[in-house]
From TrEMBL:
<feature type="region of interest" description="Disordered">
    <location>
        <begin position="53"/>
        <end position="90"/>
    </location>
</feature>
<feature type="domain" description="CHAT">
    <location>
        <begin position="842"/>
        <end position="989"/>
    </location>
</feature>
<dbReference type="InterPro" id="IPR011990">
    <property type="entry name" value="TPR-like_helical_dom_sf"/>
</dbReference>
<dbReference type="InterPro" id="IPR027383">
    <property type="entry name" value="Znf_put"/>
</dbReference>
<feature type="compositionally biased region" description="Pro residues">
    <location>
        <begin position="65"/>
        <end position="75"/>
    </location>
</feature>
<dbReference type="Pfam" id="PF13490">
    <property type="entry name" value="zf-HC2"/>
</dbReference>
<feature type="domain" description="Putative zinc-finger">
    <location>
        <begin position="7"/>
        <end position="34"/>
    </location>
</feature>
<dbReference type="InterPro" id="IPR041916">
    <property type="entry name" value="Anti_sigma_zinc_sf"/>
</dbReference>
<protein>
    <submittedName>
        <fullName>CHAT domain-containing protein</fullName>
    </submittedName>
</protein>
<dbReference type="InterPro" id="IPR024983">
    <property type="entry name" value="CHAT_dom"/>
</dbReference>
<dbReference type="Pfam" id="PF12770">
    <property type="entry name" value="CHAT"/>
</dbReference>
Amino acid sequence: MNVHCPHLPAFVDGELPLEHHEDFRAHLASCEACGVRLHDLLQADILGRLAHTKAPPTPEATGIPPAPWPLPPSEPAEVMAPPPHPRRQRPHWSHLGAFALALAAVSIWSTRVTREPPSPWSAPEPTRPLEARLTSVPLDGHRPYVPMRGGVPAAAPLPLRELARMEDRQDWRGIASAYLLAGDARQALNYLGNAAASPDVDSDRAVALALAHAGASEQTALDEALAVLEDVLRKQPDHPQALWNHALVLRNLDLPLLAADAFDAVAKLGEPGWSAEARTHAGLLREQTLARGRAWKQAFAATQDLMADSNAPLPLKEAANLPGIVRLAFYDAVRAAPSKDAALRLLPLADTLDRAYGGGTVLHATVTRVAARDFQKREPLARDYARSVRGRTPFPPAFLETLRRSGEDDLYVGALGYELTAGRPVDVAVFARAADGLGDPWFHLIAERERANQEVRDGQWWKAEARVREALRTCAAERLDYRCADLHAWLTDMYLGELHRPAEAHAHALRGWQLAKKQGEWQQERLFLQELAQVARFHHVAPTASAYFRESLARVPDDRTQLNYVHRNLATLAWMDFRVDEARQHLEQSMESGLPLGLNGAGVLADLARFGPMPGAADALSRALSGLRQGQARPGERALLDSIQGEFELERDPTAGRALLRSVLTQAEQWPGDVYARRAQARASAALISDAGRTGAFVEALALAGRQFQVTEVPERCVLAVSVQHERTLAVARGPSGAVHGDFTQTRTAPLGQDASGLVPPALQEALRGCEQVQVLAPPPVNGLPRLLPPDIAWSYRVGHATVGPLPPVDSGEHLVVSNVDTPAALGLPRLPPMSHPPGEDARRVMLEGARATPSRVLEAMATATEVEIHTHGVFSPELSDASLLMLAPEQDGRYALTANQVRAHGLSKAPLVFLAACGAARTAPFPHESFSLPVAFLDAGARAVLAATVDIPDTAGRFFNDVRERIHAGALPSVALRDERQAWLQASPGDRWVHDVLLFE
């Protein structure tokens, strides 16, 4: 039996993962046994559907996951398909079924057993249960929307005969609509995949995407739906259903002002019913959102006179509703109080704030302590403090020294805090000690944040991370949500800017946003919208990132600083999506503000220089880089700024540009652990490699690619370098004779896809044919993509190691095998089939199985192994990690995932050969400046070579990896062993396309 044959029931039942469909269809076309079984299974399926109509459905049969948009109730018909039976829970996304091949059989059976109405659509009811709009004409007439009450709706049955008729007509969109109305969005999505691309099909597909993923990650579902809808509207801006669904997606992303604008666009179409409903939605969304903004602004305004006017009304109501922003002003009011009575007057406000934070007397004690001070000495200091704060002028050093000696610690802490906020130099240790001395948790948290900032500046990010995480625990215990949100923002910025870990950044940005919304902190909400936008940008989810940025600007549309910030970031997103003209327009809008462009804006300005001169660009870049170079820029940051300037100069003065970019490489190589230095190296290398390719200096391009991977001597033969710099692609091959061949183009119009096919022209592939093996030097974002070379060529990716020694002897250390893992039951992951080991004893083999295969035990065992095999489930979710996760047995604290960061942190002293027989273990985040994946993490930890797949693999794939291992033991080079086993496997099972996506990293 072929390895695909056991998957036939799952294929018919709709449970085979979508990524396996293409391979299984290819297998089905050539397998006679599966063809016979398919007929039998379809007959059984139809009979089961008929039998189901004679019995009432059970709650288990009708349960489906909740959806972002409510689903319709059942529709009557004589013979109907039953609801889908419960499916096991999947860790992060749901997959689609394969009912498409069954419709012909359904047609035959349904004509024998029933007489159905000629249309699958029931007569219109007075209300509609589906809030989204479908494009089938009979379904798009307006009816008021009435949400389902009473929880999860039952899935509607399906009219089998009419489905068969639509199948005969190849009306895939109609069939998909029927499934959507029946509550089976997964099947709907499957049928829409058969339909020819069109705006109508894509609009319906966006609805199906949201509903199909509703039981998993709603964020992922909405991201995908938004991307599809914006593509439709880019092609057809007045598409009514897409406009409506676009508004719903924006609303469900909690972007109410953008959603209101989108509903306005629907209202302008003047459609009966739909326009009126759209106007209602737009008005409610806009008013509710702006009302919250007005409440925050009123609270803020109510606090502004407290410092200047000792008789100003106390904002007691505002303190109860918005304690965060009022507490900030309360501290300044206490500091500025000119007398004991003026201080005691603030006691009601202190008590209100104490109650708002769950009780206690911290702020009451603050007032009484200040009121007890000697105001003959304090009053002049308080007056000068208030004058500087209101005037936003720096505190003179002499005044700060006077405050330090005065014993008025609250004034001293307040003044130092303003200096820190303004970016002026302050002794952090002195500030932190003084802040802790106040005995107020609010200031202790600020002190911890500033200590962490200093640790980051000192290069001790791990200390800073641990400190702020501990501060978050303190913050939660004290219920100081405003300060908690501030700490979440700090962690978000560090994970993005310092550590390049957007998955963790997303978790903190999302939590901070939730806290800000809960507290009604309008200003913090806007800041977290921008944090979420940056996370989405790092994840290359451009439509969602753009939406977050635009929502943040909609809240302060006339703010010059925000106009500058948002438009320069929108320029970055447009550039990422290859919309060059749009990127230029956004940069021009940002430049119109008269403010510096910042790091992202400067980077895009340098990129756009390749597309011709832009008025004012040189001055704008000079201003941006000058501003960024001020202060205490670290070496890596200085190198990154030089790389941007070098790219820009390369188009104006190539000689000067090349010199500056080469100096960047020298700078960056001195700071390999600095993320800014790595970004600088990546930018400079990509620019220099493209420049070499453009001028035909292919040998120089090879040397530059080797330098990026710390290869001091590029092989004289059988090596390939591939570089992609946005629109530019360069491939350089050195074949068995040592002759160099190159190909340079600058016509790319879209980002790289999921594989690298087409990057290496046929002529260069042919030049490598005589090589025993090919070493590939491919900087990100190419590194880690499958199908770079044909399957009959033995090749591997080189990943950043200065030397490559021989593989350790087979009998020199332990052979660790992790298999039969007891993953957490809540994940619903099936147990993989037991590993069958080669005949004969293996005294070196160490097994970790079942509940013993925890992350900590696996890490410990790998440290001394010369070979590592891990057979388990793999998961790739950018919300959880920036590389694939390996699902292992849970620790006592519940942790069960082995991550790239954990692997990288543990040394592999025996330089093992690693086999990752897990789904998608080689998937990598699409970062342009560094490869980030499990294989790279293993290599960073000390592994000699890693085999892993970029796609989901069948449960039987363990045999493939074991056979590769046996070939290596027999003396074959790893790349040759992989090539030969792939060829043998494809000869036996031509439909097993996944073997093309197993890669070797060395």
